[in-house]
Amino acid sequence: MLPLYRDPYFTFRFAESRIVPRIHLEGVEPGRRVSVYQSDPVSGERWKLLATAVTGADGWVELPEPVIVHAGESFVAVPD
Fold it and tell me: What is the pLDDT, as a whole number, of residue 3?
């Protein structure tokens, strides 16, 4: 089954503070470059670039430096 709509990016929102060393991007093939941006938790607007990395096996992205996210914050991962 094909979805009617699919966002070209992945949004991560957190209710609790976390240190995020890696993220999972389902359906993104290995070797694809990914940009991670801090974002507005309400509008989703991208604020600043936090990291760039490359997807590994099964869509896992090991970030060069862990992203520190406080309660209520969010970030987006955009496959290039």
Answer: 64
Residue from 2, 5, 6, 80 nearest 37 by CA = 80
Given a cut of 70, whether residue 77 has pLDDT beyond it is: yes
- What pTM was estimated for this model as a whole? 0.86
C-alpha span between 26 and 66 (Å, rounded): 20
> Which domains are delineated in the chain?
10-79 (2.60.120.820)
**Do residues 63 and 21 lie in contact, with contact meaning Cβ atoms separated by under 8 Å?**
yes
Average pLDDT of every residue of the chain: 91
Question: To which residue do tokens 């503070």 refer?
Answer: 17
Closest CA to 11 of 21, 25, 22: 25
Give the Cα separation of 25 and 57 in Å (integer). 10
